[in-house]
Amino acid sequence: MADTLTMAAFLRSKAGAGFISFLCLSAVISAALAFGNYYLSREGFTRSKSEEKITALQLVDAFVADYSDNRGKFLSGDAPVPATFRAHAIERFNKMRDASSALRLLMVGPAGREIAIPPADDDMAETVRRFGQAATPQPETRFITLNGEVSFRTLYPSLASQPSCVDCHNKLQPGEHWKLNDVLGAFVIDVPAGPFLARTRWQNAGLGVATFLLLGLIGLYISILHFRQLAEREATQARLKDSEERFRDFAEIASDWFWEQDENLRFSYLSSAVHARSGMPVNEHIGKTRREVVHLGVSEEQWQAHDADLADRRPFHDFQFQRAGDDGVIRHIRISGRPMFDADGRFTGYRGTARNVTDEVEVEIELERRVGERTAELQEVQEELLRKERLATLGQLTATVSHELRNPLGVIRNTMFTIAETAQASGLKLDRAFGRIERSIGRCDTIITELLDYTRIRQLRREKFPLDSWLAEVLDEQQIPKRIALIREFDAGDPVVSVDADRLRRVIINLVDNAAQAIEGDREATNSASPRITVRTRSTAERVEIEIEDSGPGIPAEIFKRIFEPLFSTKGFGVGLGLPTVKQIMEHHGGNIEMSSELGRGTRALIWLPLTREAEIAA
After folding, report:
1. How many other CB atoms are there within 10 angstroms of residue 213's CB atom?
2. How far is CA 464 from CA 265, 461, 470, 474, 610, in A?
3. How far apart are CA 21 and CA 26, in angstroms?
4. Which residue of 2, 245, 269, 381 has the lowest C-beta tally within 10 Å?
5. Residue 602, by phi and psi: left (phi above 0), alpha (psi -120 to 50) or beta?
6. Whole-structure pTM value
7. What is the CATH number of the domain that holds 336?
8. CATH number, residue 569
9. Strands 462-466 and 267-270: what pairing?
10. Which of 106, 274, 306, 117 has its CA nearest to residue 188?
11. Domains in the chain: how many in total?
12. Contact 83/168 with Cβ under 8 angstroms?
């Protein structure tokens, strides 16, 4: 297993990659060497065999020519003619050879004009034909395949170089008209070359494999040596790095980073952790003073105290400041340092440690925030308890006072009716006085009704109707000053809503009355020469909205924050339950009211109702 891992590590290393590349190169070199040697062997075989066979054929041709020349001089007419003599001699020669492996010698004539032996194959016939067409035919050699066997063929042209040859051939073939230097045929020698070529291929393949193995072994040896050297070097570097990291870990556990300043109080060294822990790279510290790299979280008094410590070459502890890193995060940093002196006592700078105390500071800030939240919650709870207590008291008081007041008011109203009839019978004109009394009684009755409605939760009587159509009817009934334009912008698409029509009518009337009273109450502050109240409707996927906007003077900020506070009013009449009642009605419907105001531009009231909520919503 270990050897497998070592080999895998070797192959993954640079030395392994180099070895694989060397193997590829060795394979190319070995293949080139084997092929080149095979090619040279074949060329050598071709050249030597060609020269040998051509020489032999020249000797045969010369012998036959000499026989032909001397036949007429010394031999009788019964002696074989040269062609016959040559054919018989070649036949005897071939019989003496091993037919399966020895060379075969033929003398063939042109196809159709041969005396004894025609061409044995197409290649032979074509070559003899080319010899006959050439002015000076030359011997040819080549490798051919006959009956599945590779042979090396040599073809030597036989010419009618002697008159006796011409005469002899014309006697044997009277109709051919042979002439001097005609191609009478060709000597052909076929030497079996298959075994030689196969043997040469195997020999050169073995040479290539041997060369590849030799180069591979040499490359492997060198690569393993290189791999071991690299492994030793990497192991040494790893041990050195581990030692450095161990020392750095021990040092950085004591603090987040280290720093040094020269005699001019400029940073000359910081450990690498400064960037990660403080958000500022090392190179942005080097050559700068602390004032040049610290811009947040230090008051001028703190700087003066710190500069005094540095000027007096005193150690300092827990100097704290803030820094915004390149990521935009604010970090709280606390540093300590001590002066450095050389052997002669000369000041050489400061050296110290630094810590990122952001977590500690954030814990303190979070603690303060939570204390503040809890205090605010307690105040809200206390205010809510007081409000509920006031409302409970108001409810009890309203129930008692309404009963106690409405009875006298009823008596006063009946008495005034009797007095009015008596005065009318007596001719006294007291209609205006009686009208004022009636209006005052009605106002008191309205106040009692508002108090009862606000302090008593009533079940909603929901019904469905188209919102835009219903709202148009409510606005038609509303009486506002003629100089105020009532603008309608209904874009809700007349959705069907399920509401308590009487209570929602009270909301619309209350808001429109408030808008008209705001415009009429301060004509000089109204922001337009044409005062207007705009009523808009909108519809979304989840709710429908009604917006009532006026061009009045707006509401001051100190008053705006109290507009939903019960019994708070800036008017000379009423009890301050208008908007609180509106908010209460909208919340009972599952909706709400949103107010906004801008001095000099007017006030906007947005009420909304859910479209998908059909069930009644408890208070």
Report:
1. 12
2. 81, 10, 10, 16, 13
3. 9
4. 2
5. left
6. 0.38
7. 3.30.450.20
8. 3.30.565.10
9. unpaired
10. 106
11. 4
12. yes
Rg (CA), the chain: 62
Q: Is residue 241 part of a domain?
A: no
Quickly list DSSP for 225-253.
HHHHHHHHHHHHHHHHHHHHHHHHHHHHH
* Residue finishing a domain among 327, 356, 385: 356
Helix (H/G/I), strand (E/B), else coil: 37: helix
Distance CA 522, CA 531 (A): 11
Cα angle, residue 570 at apex, residues 565 and 575 outer, rounded to 5° = 60
Q: Are residues 96 and 193 in the same domain?
A: yes
> How far apart are the C-alpha atoms of 290 and 585, rounded to whole Å?
63
Query: Does 375 lie in the same domain as 345?
Result: no
Are 368 and 487 in the same domain? no
* Selection from 156, 197, 160, 154 nearest residue 178 by Cα: 160
Q: Looking at the structure, tell me whether residues 183 and 140 fall in a common domain.
A: yes
Domain interval for residue 576: 460-610
If pLDDT is split at 50, 70 and 90, which confidence band does 395 have? Answer: low
Same-domain status, 352 and 367: no
**256-293: string of b/e by CB count within 10 Å (b at 16+)?**
bbbbbbeeebbbbebbebbbebbbbebeebeeeebeee
The full 3-state SS of 461-478, as one line of letters, equals CEEEEEHHHHHHHHHHHC
What's residue 203's pLDDT?
87
3-state secondary structure of 387: helix
Rounded CA-CA distance 503/401 in Å is 24
Tokens read off for 64: 């036959």
**Residue 427 sits in the same domain as residue 539:** no
Q: In what order do the strands lie in the sheet with 543-550?
A: 485-490, 532-539, 543-550, 602-610, 592-598
Q: What is the mean predicted confidence (pLDDT) over 396-424? A: 69
Show the tokens assigned to 172: 């044997």
Given a cut of 80, is residue 94 above it in pLDDT? Answer: no
What does the pLDDT average to over 189-209?
A: 84
Query: HEC states along 112-150?
Result: CCCCCCCCCCHHHHHHHHHHHHCCCCCCEEEEEEECCEE
Which of 200, 222, 237 is a domain's end point? 200
How do strand 532-539 and strand 485-490 relate by DSSP bridges?
parallel
Within 13 A of 318's CA, how many CA atoms are on the CB side? 1
Both structure tokens of 380: 């809200």
Residue 306 contacts residue 324 (beta carbons within 8 Å): no
Task: Report d(CA 129, CA 140) in Å as an integer.
Answer: 13
In the numeric block, which tokens belong to residue 569?
């009013």
Q: Cβ atoms within 10 A of the Cβ of 494, count? A: 15
CA pair distance 393, 575, nearest whole angstrom:
16
27 and 129 belong to one structural domain: yes
3 state DSSP class of 549: strand
For 206-240, the pLDDT digits (tens) are 888 998 888 888 888 888 888 888 888 888 888 88
Q: Is 211 within the bounds of a domain? A: no
- The residue count for the chain: 619
Asked if pLDDT for residue 615 goes beyond 50, the answer is: no
Q: Side by side, which strands form the sheet with 183-192?
A: 104-108, 183-192, 149-159, 140-146
- Among 163-177, 264-278, 427-441, 557-571, name the most confident range: 264-278
Q: 149-159 and 140-146: which strand pairing?
A: antiparallel
Could you report the per-residue pLDDT of 438-455, keeping only the tens digit for each?
A: 777 766 766 666 666 666
E-assigned strand segments in 254-304: 257-261, 267-270
